[in-house]
Specification:
The chain has 628 residues and is of the alpha/beta class. The chain has 3 domains: 23-264, Glutamine Phosphoribosylpyrophosphate, subunit 1, domain 1 (4-Layer Sandwich); 272-458, Glucose-6-phosphate isomerase like protein, domain 1 (Rossmann fold), CATH 3.40.50; 474-610, Glucose-6-phosphate isomerase like protein, domain 1 (Rossmann fold, 3-Layer(aba) Sandwich), CATH 3.40.50. Helix content is 33%, strand content 23%. Helix 18 links the parallel strand 26 and strand 27. Helix 8 (280-288) packs parallel to helix 13 (422-442) and helix 8 runs antiparallel to helix 15 (460-468). It is globular and about 80 Å long. The two termini are 49 Å apart. The chain binds 6-O-phosphono-alpha-D-glucopyranose. 6-O-phosphono-alpha-D-glucopyranose is lined by residues 320-323, 367-369, 372, 375, 418-420, 423, 621, 623-625.
Length: 628
């Protein structure tokens, strides 16, 4: 009889907390604000950023300094903040999403009349509509960011009441945001707003703060108030008043932070990898939601809508490592939904393979960093032969993004652990959107199936959140399996594609010999390696092929294997054949890869932990491989 590691069906109201891309901070008190902001921003550097800036209010004037690159450069430019006087200010470290990492795109952003300055963490999903509206009303836009609409909205709604203007502006925003806003009419006041992006107020004595991340605050105060979604705070040096979204004043509890700085950087998790695994619902949500509007897939910022699909007779996906395995999922999905032949090629092989590629080939390039040397070389080789290129990249302004004809960004935020997790799941999510979009455009996907899949794709963040609820059970499994010498991962079709990434995760961080096999291939050799107690991880989420995989499970069981199966909640067939079962929430089979990888990431993580490995920095590996 198997042990059950059960996940409930998708919880309807799960809110994804704790995911963010940029870092924000604010100070109001009796000291000069600039040096305090700069020290706070330095504590946010660990999370990765590409530009930074501060705005300080002195009497009734707001001054600003912004740089692309490091905070050290900002310190140099402002003489460690001494060039500014003023006791209230806001600061920002930016991880570019909308617009390249330039000085102008760095935050804060200022209103045209110079009265307001804003820092923002999150994504404003309806920024294009708002930008058009504001431009029509005569507001000038200096940057390419989504954030700039916020400050112009505040200016537009200001009729003498700062808080009301911010509340009105916020009511127009869709997406996720933590905001800090200055108004030159009220020189010691900051208004902070939170919606789906973390934000906390630091409570001092004669000084108060806000930040997106507790690390920026612990050097100043350990007493904090956590804002909830929809809440606003009016912060002055002596007073903090919190309001709900209707403007009603509310009482908030003050919490004491006891984390040391290292624990705070990891959001209380032991490793960045675990933190990033947990961030996946938010990362996928940030990546897909802005592209899903009124039952359509939209590619506003990439210009991809202009791609002439009729001219495409073949798709080649190229990448390295996990990104290549994301491409393997993409092949199954695109071929199934779009009926266009898809080849997935390792970039290191493709670049030297004299590939058969011409102007009718669409090249999809997947890369978290956008800087992988082999991927860049393969891409150049294919583009030379006439292919149109579409890159799916996490780092704005990276080399691959610059070279590609079209770029769609995964908005996963900075990834610090060497082994990718949210990079992979956000890439797979974009491939789903692409397949839906192309299938509809090419007419290979009928309206009913399109709608069903569209609705299911929207549910992916919740399904991932649900699969994460396995967390308390996975460590037990890791204790059982960690001392094995080898582990085999098997599956068919999309399950096979996921088993490749599952095995790679296990190898990378636990140093255990892990291999993925197409389940149907076992008989052609690998089954000779199956012996007593040999762990086999069997992926059984592709409904149409489950019976076949069950037969393979039976075959390896008959040779003594210990089988851990991953399947859906209602799949009672597996219970009678596998030794252990992990359930994932029900989702359309073709979309299951992005969910079934979650328990495999956790398994790799906890096996590595049992084995005492350096999880965030595995030996011999680099986060970004910029040499051949
Ligand atoms: C390295 C990383 C992997 C990553 C691969 C491709 O090997 O350790 O996690 O999948 O590079 O990187 P890219 O940035 O191109 O996705």
């Amino acid at each position: 009889m198997s042990r059950l590691y059960n996940v409930d069906i998708i919880k309807p109201n799960t809110i994804f907390q704790g995911f963010y891309m940029c870092g924000i901070m604010g100070y109001t008190g009796s000291l000069d604000a600039a040096p305090i902001l700069l020290e706070g921003l330095k504590k946010l550097e660990y999370r990765g950023y590409d530009s930074a800036g501060i705005a300080v209010m002195d009497k009734n004037v707001i001054s600003m300094s912004k740089v692309s690159g490091r905070i050290a450069h900002l310190c140099e430019k402002t003489n460690d903040g001494k060039l500014f006087s003023g006791h209230a200010g806001i600061g920002h470290t930016r991880w570019a999403t909308h617009g390249a990492p330039t000085d102008t795109n760095a935050h804060p952003h200022m209103s045209n009349d110079g009265k307001f300055a804003v820092v923002h963490n999150g994504i404003i999903e309806n920024y294009l509509t708002l930008r058009d509206e504001l431009k029509e009303k005569g507001y000038r836009f200096d940057s390419q960011t989504d954030t700039e609409v916020v400050v112009h909205l505040v200016e537009m709604y200001f009729e003498g009441d700062f808080r009301k203007a911010v509340m009105k502006a916020a009511s127009r925003l869709q997406g996720s945001y933590a905001l800090g806003v200055l108004c030159s009419d009220e020189p010691d006041k900051i208004i902070a707003v939170r919606e789906y992006s973390p934000l906390l107020i630091g409570v001092g004595i004669g000084d108060n703060y806000f930040a997106s991340d507790v690390t920026a605050l612990v050097q100043y105060t350990r007493n904090v108030i956590y804002l909830d979604d929809g809440e606003f705070a009016e912060i002055t040096k002596d007073k903090i008043t919190v309001y709900d979204c209707t403007g009603k004043e509310i009482n908030k509890e003050i919490n004491h932070i006891s984390w040391d700085i290292q624990a705070a950087e990891k959001g209380g998790y032991e490793h960045f990898m675990l933190k990033e695994i947990m961030e996946q619902p938010g990362a996928v949500k940030a990546t897909i939601t802005p592209r899903m509007k009124d039952n359509e897939i939209v590619w506003d910022e990439s210009g991809l809508d202009k791609l002439d699909l009729k001219n495409v007779n073949k798709i080649v996906i190229t990448a390295c490592g996990s990104a290549y395995y994301a491409g393997c999922v993409g092949k199954y999905v695109i071929e199934e939904l779009c009926r266009i032949p898809v080849q997935v090629e390792l970039a290191s092989e493709l670049r030297y393979s004299n590939p058969i590629i011409d102007e009718h080939t669409l090249l999809i390039v997947l890369s978290q960093s956008g800087e992988t040397a082999d991927t860049i070389a393969a891409m150049k080789e294919c583009m030379k032969r006439g292919a149109k290129s579409l890159s799916v990249v996490n780092v704005v302004g990276s080399t691959i993004a610059k070279i590609a004809d079209y770029t769609v960004y995964t908005w996963a935020g900075p990834e610090i652990a060497v082994a990718t997790t949210k990079g992979y799941t956000t890439q797979v999510s974009i491939l789903y959107l692409l397949a839906l979009w192309m299938g509809k455009k090419a007419g290979t996907l009928d309206e009913t199936l399109y709608q069903k899949l569209y609705d299911n794709v929207k549910m992916i963040p919740k399904a991932i959140q649900n699969a994460l609820d396995l967390n308390p059970k996975i460590p037990q499994l890791a204790k059982k399996y960690h001392s094995s010498k080898a582990m085999f991962f098997i599956g068919r079709n999309t399950d096979y594609a996921v088993s490749l990434e599952g095995a790679l995760k296990m190898k990378e961080i636990s140093y255990l010999h892990a291999e993925a096999y197409a389940a149907g291939e076992l008989k052609h050799g690998t089954i000779a390696l199956i012996d007593d107690h040999q762990p086999v991880i069997a992926l059984c989420c592709n409904s149409s092929l489950q019976e076949k995989t069950i037969s393979n499970i039976v075959e390896v069981k008959a040779r003594g294997a210990e089988v851990l199966a991953v399947t859906y909640k209602d799949n009672s067939n597996i219970i009678s054949v596998a030794d252990d079962v992990i359930y994932i929430p029900q989702i359309e089979s073709i979309l299951s890869p992005v969910v079934e990888i979650i328990p495999l990431q956790l398994l790799a993580y906890y096996v590595a932990k049992e084995n005492g490995c350096d999880i965030d920095k595995p030996k011999n590996l680099a986060k970004s491989v910029t040499v051949e």
